[in-house]
Amino acid sequence: MLDVEKIRKDFPILGQQVYGKPLVYLDNGATTQKPTIVLETIERLYNKENSNVHRGVHHLSNVTTENYEAARKTVQDFIHAEHAHEIIFTHGTTSSINAVAFSFGERYVQAGDEIIVSGMEHHANIVPWQMLCERKGAILKVLPVTEKGDLQLEKLDDLISEKTKLLAVTQVSNVLGTINPVKKIVKIAHAHNVPVLIDGAQGIQHEKTDVQETDCDFYVFSGHKIYGPTGIGVLYGKEKWLNEMPPYQGGGDMIKKVTFEKTIYEDLPLKFEAGTMNYIGAIGLGKAIEYLQKTGFDDIIAREQELEEYATSRLMQIPGLRIFGTSDHKTGIVSFLIGDIHPYDTGMILDKLGVAVRTGHHCAEPLVESYGITGTVRASFAFYNTKEEVDILYNALLKVIEMLG
Ligand code: PLP
Fold first, then answer.
1. C-alpha to C-alpha distance for 194 and 99, rounded to whole angstroms
2. In terms of DSSP bridges, do strands 358-360 and 24-25 run parallel, antiparallel, or are they unpaired?
3. For a designed S-S bond to 264, which of 80, 256, 310, 367 qualifies (C-beta 3.0 to 4.6 A apart)?
4. Residues annotated as part of the active site
């Protein structure tokens, strides 16, 4: 069992008031707050240890390089990758997906080939593939979603053809909260020799991730959504792919030898880490992961599921409220609308009552529009949230109805 009172003290930002009301932060899907240990680590690094990695012969550079590589190992263990060099640091999920779309695309995709995404993807897992398709004359295909918010997996076999080069799918929907059966999806795709990229932006913090068990070919996530700093992210790729794929950026640190005639690239992971990396962010991310493990990741997962279920049961008591995403496998996210009240109006009033939620299409316009709407209100939970906060949300929504309903 988690001691939530104690946990909340680890997140100083949560203790504040907005408009004279205690802050109820339910926008964790957009970004999570940072525990003191991460903030102190960043401060310590800049105050005492800062130096560029992989470059110096001096003490500070060696210390920071060791910490940076230790963070890579922490990420490797956390997602259970086979090798540390399969962990590439990037700026976040978006840059990881763009890196694969460019690099994998350059190596493997040609005119007439096909890429499959699902109908519930974030723009970050649509647009880079569209750009690849435009560049190469390839075709983007879409696996449809049911009204409840589940993938129509029975259609996958037929959607895949001998032209399919890659399938990209989210682990957890950022709008619906659906947990997708990624292991099953990988199995189907692999039966057709199609590699799979999993967008873990909303999954890494709510689910135990094991890339070897899932057998996915690529897995990507952002540090800031898992209590780490902004501007750092991860691209995991199986060694066999990463070795074959060309670098997507050239510059310092990713080379073995440069002459004006030819450059020989570094081995993994440095081949994909051109220029000065966000090493402070990577070390901060490592600390965030250590914090979650120390707190008890299994308990964190269970608590977030419990909060989602409690919020769903409370919100369903509100007359005229419709929840989008009613899959049997959900976590962390409840998206809704009340009658014909515009989500933005609901969000504005909630804000004045101290409740922070997200409104709009959540960067998943095709999915949101498939419900015949332009946006929802989204409450997204972290393990530091409480049932009392859900009750505050519930009461605040009654107030919204009183004012606008
Ligand atoms: N994929 C999903 C499912 C997301 O929810 C998000 C962000 O909300 C992203 C990708 C993009 O993440 P980032 O902006 O950190 O690159």
1. 18
2. unpaired
3. 256
4. 363
Tell me the whole-structure pTM to 2 decimals: 0.98
**Quick one: CATH architecture of 4-30+296-404?**
Alpha-Beta Complex (3.90)
> Which protein residue has the closest C-alpha to ligand 1 atom 14?
94
Q: In this predicted model, what pLDDT tens digit does every residue of 77-136 receive, in sequence order? A: 999 999 999 999 999 999 999 999 999 999 999 999 999 999 999 999 999 999 999 999
Ligand 1 surroundings by CB, under 6 angstroms: 92-94, 122, 124-125, 170, 174, 199, 201-202, 222
| Residue 67 to residue 92: CA distance in whole angstroms | 19
Cα(363) to centroid(ligand 1), Å = 8
Distance 57 CA to ligand 1 centre (A): 37
All structural domains of the chain with their residue ranges: 4-30+296-404, 39-293
Q: Which CATH architecture has domain 39-293?
A: 3-Layer(aba) Sandwich (3.40)
For residues 308 and 387, the answer to whether their CB atoms sit within 8 Å is no
Q: How many CB atoms lie within 10 A of CB 44?
A: 12
Tokens of 304: 């977030």
Give exposure, 256-294, as e/b (b: 16+ Cβ within 10 Å).
eeeeeeeeebbebbbbbbbeebbbbbbbbbbbbbbbbee
Mean pLDDT of the chain: 97
